[in-house]
Structure formats: structure tokens, C-alpha cells
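Q: Could you predict the 3D structure of BTB/POZ domain, NPH3 domain-containing protein?
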Amino acid sequence: MVDVYQEGGELPMTLHMPATKKELTSDAMKRISEWISSQDVPSDVIVSVGGVSFPTHKFALISKCGYIKKLLSDTKDADLSVVEIPDIPGGPEGFELAAKFCYETHLELSLDNIAMARCVAEYLEMTEEYAVGNLVSITEGYLNKTGLQNLSGAASILQSSANLLPVSEKVKLIDRCVDTIACMVTDESQVYVVDWWAEDLIGLRIDMFKRVLLALVSRGFKQFALGPVLMLYAQKCLRGLDFYSKSRKNLDPKQEHEKRIILETIVGLLPREKNAMSISFLSMLLRAAKHLDTTVACRLDLEKRMGLQLGQAVLEDILIPSFCFDGDTLFDVDTVQQIMMNYFEYMSKDSGDMNHAYPSQSDNENVGMLMESFLAKIASDRNLLVSKFINFAECIPMEVRVTEDGMYRAIDIYLKAHPAISDMDRKKVCSLMDCQKLSREARAHAAQNERLPVQTMVQVLYYEQQRLREMDSSSPITDLVTSHTTLESQKSVSDEISRLKKENQELKFELIKMKTRLKEIEKSNVNKPKGNNANESGGSKGKPPLPKRSLISSVTKKLGKITPFLHADGFLPSSTRGRNKPDKDRRHSVA
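A: Sure. Here are the predicted C-alpha cells for BTB/POZ domain, NPH3 domain-containing protein:
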């Protein structure tokens, strides 16, 4: 703190009502009496600033304020007793500071008021032209010797200057603070460590913060090194937003607008290099962007950035709430799908460019499993339409799906949560997975899953039988048996072959039972219209009761599409006997 004047009386003024002579100190009264008795001292004048009245003396003001001197000299009213100054920087507080200086009272300059003092001095034209050692020169001296000598001081003055526009721009106060900060950071941060200066910058207003970062980049500071300070600033300014849940907080419109501007500015300042920001931080920004309803360009930019780093994401990073209240899904499916499409577009674009790092196979597999996990997460949402489920699943390429277990799990959850979907939609959903790529455990579960269409269950059993047949007759097993000379190795291989043969026989038996059951239902459905009377007369005594008409109709409808598939593949051993029996009967009848 610097004392401009060590001696002097108090200023005769009040912030709310005119001051009386009783409130003046003896020294101030003595000086005022001397000024009034002098021939050059005009009558007293009241200065009104922002609704606050300051009873002052013209001589005290015009001796150092060129603005007030011109204002009073240009008026035609010689008895002018009230002067209004509406746009003075700092309002009443700023004028009070200047008036104290004019009355030569105790004035202390500090980092908190130096910006205001400098701008008020400029506005009131308190230059050397009107008085030696005027307020402009005194504030400039403080800035050069004290205020702008360290980073924290420059940041404090810059923050104060943001509220004193446009005068602070006119006197180049903002530019000088920004240049001082940028110079200190770039000179002392040889290894781009941000912890020692980030704390001083995150307190700045967003427009001042942006100017400092741009100045750093222009001085050669690496843009990717700005990531940590951007994260700190975002966490500080966006604190209090509940964007991890679907519900919205009732924000004040002004506060919401300020946060929206802050977020859009931060997104525009993000480094362009890949992996400069963590994907969890980008996910947080995207949630906030949707919560605050930022511009479309801001959200698309974040979606693109997340797409480039999707291989590093976990499920929590893409669980973005849907802030719609019209029966939409719990999570934003369209946004996640766009992020996924951005990743695969980047992957296909860079596959032919040797200058770009092609996504590794592990990243592709991680993305495939991540998308299947997300699909399983949203599958239980009753508001998820079957068309949206199918559309999302079809966007996951087959080459990134190592197995179909994740897809099968998502399909099973969806069918369980949506039991009322039509048979056609059920078939479309199940056609999303390749049964041949299911693991043995998944096939065992699918073969007994009554939620799946019969066609899918039969297809699963067929591929399992085909796999076992190939393993039974493949040369690797034979080579393995011959290559192991020890009795223990031969025994283990023999046990494995026996187990596989047993599983093969069990699957064949299951297929035969399923075909027999389907044929029985088909026969009962065909004979039912003709055998109504026989059934009524007890012709079917001793036979098991037929299924209900609804069950027969549904199974017959399925058989009409399943049976040709079974016979065409020819994988059921009993199918030959079923076709040859009528031919055998025909030969006996001819004979």
C-alpha cells in the first residue's frame, strides 16, 4: 500500500446524503475557508455520480480535474450548483477516490484500487497539464514499480480492469497486464509446469482468461500444455451444475447465460492435439454443454474430440443423460452413436494416411466391447424403440466385435424388457448377431432361451454341432495326440475327445427331440380341421391333448419358415427317414 499524501484532512462528502459542516475536520474546514475567501474560488458544487451526491468545492476539483474544469467553463449557467457525471469508471467509489486526491487527504493505492484510480484519473483528465504530480503520473508510477512486477499483482489488476471497460482498454491497462503475465509464464515455465501460475489465472473473468491464453500461445507456449489450466478453470466455473443426472436445476437466467458463455469459450480454447485432454474431461464438458443448451457447433466439436479418443473411454464416459422430458430414453443414444461414427470415420480416413497414427487393434476391440456394453445398458429402457436399438447395433462393425457374446447379452436384455414386440421385430433384433461367433457358454444359454425365436435357437444348435464335428475330425487334434508321447498327455487328449463326442451326441439328441416335437405340432395342426368330429366322439382317447389354437397357429407360422431352412442345410440325421417313408409305402401299394 502506498500513501499518496501523508497529511491532510478528510474529504467533506457522504455516499448517501450531503455532508454538513459538522462532519468536516478542522483542517478541511480551514482549507475550504481559505479557498472561498480567495477571488479564484467559485461557489460550492454538488457532484452527482450514480445517484450519490458529493458536496464539493469547484476550486478543489478544477485545480486537478481537466474534465470538470471544461464542464464548468462550458456551461452558460454561472450559478451551476449540481454537476452530473454518469459514466465515471467505478461509479461513486471511483469519484470518491479522485475527490480525496483533489482535497489532498489520506489516499492509499493498492492492488485492489490501482486499476480504478488509473481509469478515474484518465476519465477526469487528471494530468500534468493541470497539476504537477497529478493522479495519472502517480498511478503510472505505482503500476511500473509495484503493480506489474509479479504475476499475482498483474492478474489482480487485470481482473479489476475487466470491470472498468472501455477506459481500461483506452489506457492500455489490459494489454500491459496480459503481456506481463504472458512474458513471466513463458520465461519461467521452461518445462511447461502450470501449477505455480494456474491458481492466479483461474480467478480471471473468461474474456480476460482467453486473452492471456492467446498471448501465451503467440509467445510460443505449447497449446497442449494449456490443458491442465483449462481443466482447473472449467471445474471452478462450472461447479454446481448437476449435469450427471437427467433433472435440471433451476438456474438464474443470467447465471445460466454466463456459464454458457464460459463453456463455449473453453471449448474454443481446447488444444487441437489428440490426447491433450482426457476423454473423461471431454465427457464432462459435453454433459455440461447439453445441460446448458450451448450452440450446436460447440456440441459437435466435443463429439468429434471424444470420437478421436473413444478407444480410451469407459462406459461411464458415454453415459450422457438425455435432457428431454417428452418420453425420451434415459441416456442420449443419438449423441453416443454420433461419437461412435466419428471414431470409425477417423479410423477409415487414417487407414490410408501414413502420417497419422492408425488406431490400434486393441483400441478397435475396446470400442466394439464398449458399444456393446452401452447397448446392453440402454436395452432395459422401456422407451427405447426397436428401430433405434437396431440402428445403433448395425453401426457397430463386425470387424471390431471379437465375439458376439456382448451383442447377445444386449439382445437378451432388450427382449426381456420389451416382451410385447412383434415376432417380426423379434426376428430382426436377433438377426443382429452372428450365432457362429458366440462362445460355447453363450450358445448353451441361447439354446435354452425361450425369449429367442425358434429359428435362432435351432441355428445356435446347428453351429454348435458343426463346431464340434469340425473339432472331432480336424487334424490338429490328431497331430496333438501323436505328438504327445507320454501316457499322461495321451490320456488328457483322449478325455477331451470323449467329452467333445459326448457333447456332440447330446446336441444331436436335442435336435432330434426338437424336430420330433415340431412335426407333432405340425401334424396336429394339419389334421385338426378334418378331425373335429372324431375328436368330439372320442377318437383321440388315450392321446395327449392338443395345444390351444393360438399356440398351434404361432408354431405353424414359425414352422413354415424354419422347416425349409432345416431341410436345405441337411444337418438333421432324421430328415432322410422322414422323406423316404412315403416312398416306401407307395412301393408296397403298387406291389
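Q: Anything worth pointing out?
A: The beta strands are 2-3, 44-49, 52-57, 82-84, 108-109.
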